[in-house]
Structure formats: C-alpha cells, structure tokens
Amino acid sequence: MAMKQLLLLRHAKSSWDDPELDDFDRPLAGRGLKSARLMGRELAARDWLPDLALVSPALRTSDTWRLVAAELPVHPRVAFAEALYDASATDILRRIQKADPSAGCLVVLGHNPGLEDLAKQLAGPGSEPKALKRLEEKFPTAALARFVFEDDWSALSRARLTHCLRPKDLS
User: Fold this and answer.
1) Using an 8 Å Cβ cutoff, are 13 and 54 in contact?
2) What is the number of alpha carbons within 13 Å of residue 145 lying toward its C-beta?
3) Residue 111 to residues 64, 79, 83, 134: CA-CA distances in angstroms?
4) Backbone φ, ψ for residue 40 (5° rounding)
5) DSSP secondary structure string, 65-103?
6) What residue ranges define each of the domains in the chain, with the CATH number in brackets?
7) Could you tell me whether strands 144-149 and 4-10 are parallel, antiparallel, or unpaired per DSSP bridges?
8) Do 3 and 15 contact (CB within 8 A), yes or no?
9) In terms of DSSP H, where are the helices of the chain?
C-alpha cells in the first residue's frame, strides 16, 4: 500500500472590515492574502502536491485555495464541499473517508474549530514531537498540518503528524 498524505489547511486571515457581511461572505484581509501565497509556495517547495482538494465554499476558504493553487506547479482536482463549512471534526473526517481512493495526497481547506480538533484527533503514534507541540499551542489562520499513513482514505482514523506549519514560522 502506498503512503498517503493528508494536508489540513486552515483558511487565511479574513477581514472584519464590513460588520454587515454574513460570516460565509467574509473576504481575506491583506495579511491573509500574503499568508495564502506563502503557504502555496511552501507546498510547492516541499513537493507536497495534492491530487485532490476538498474546499469549504465560504469566500475566505475558496479565496485561500485560489491563492495557494496559483503557487503550485500542477493543479489538482477541486471539490467545493458545503459540508466543510462550520463542520465538526467528525464531519470533516467522514468527508475525507469518502475521498477518491486514487488520490495519494489530499488537501482539506476549512475552518476552526473543526479543522484543529480533527488535526489533534488524528495525530497518532510516531507523530513528530515538535509538530505536536505547535499543534497543541495554536492552529492559527493559514496553518497547515501534514499527516502520513498507509491505508485507504476510508480507513483513516489516526495518522502520523509530520509537520505543523504556521505562516509566522516561514516568513
């Protein structure tokens, strides 16, 4: 069985400039625009290239994905999944478990608290201590947790956390 990679990416910093906007429609802030591009460049530099992207359709997540994807040398298939907006860790995991089995690397772009809760839940034996410590400290906007495991998506319940990257650690 080939090694699978799961990338959990929180949307970049959103703008609160317009208090009248619905949460779903909040755009990225200036800092978010920079962080999304930075994380895209980091994915490309590390050769963590997704075959499939599952993205919440909220404006801040879809914009984050657009900026990340623009930095990648190849463009994966993208599925905008309504179920990822305001989803619990359990809901996100169920969606991952239904992912195309042929995808070797999957990126999920969503929201807290569900994404952070899932990252903590998935981090199993053999996880990198420094990455675990960062994950426990904070999973801020544009943070990325990378997991590897040997199985099908449908069997995912625990995985090895290899990295927890935050924009401030990269810039």
Assistant:
1) no
2) 35
3) 12, 16, 11, 18
4) -65, -45
5) HHHHHHTSSS--EEEE-GGGTT--HHHHHHHHHTS-TT-
6) 4-12+25-170 (3.40.50.1240)
7) antiparallel
8) no
9) 30-46, 59-70, 89-97, 114-122, 129-137, 167-170
Average confidence score pLDDT of the chain: 96
Cis peptide before 113 (omega within 30 of 0): yes
Radius of gyration of the chain (CA): 15
CA separation for the pair 114, 15 (Å, rounded): 20
List, for residues 99-152, the tens digit of each pLDDT value. 999 999 999 999 999 999 999 999 999 999 999 999 999 999 999 999 999 999
- Residues 69-92 pLDDT 10s: 999 999 999 999 999 999 999 999
Query: What is the percentage of the chain residues whose pLDDT exceeds 90?
Result: 96
- Residue found under tokens 């994966």: 76
Residue 103 identity: A
User: Comparing C-alpha atoms, which of 152, 18, 11, 166 is closest to residue 87?
Assistant: 11
- List the structure tokens of 47: 């050769």
| CA pseudo-torsion sign 58, 59, 65, 66 | positive
**Both tokens of residue 162?**
């290899």
pTM of the predicted model over 0.90: yes
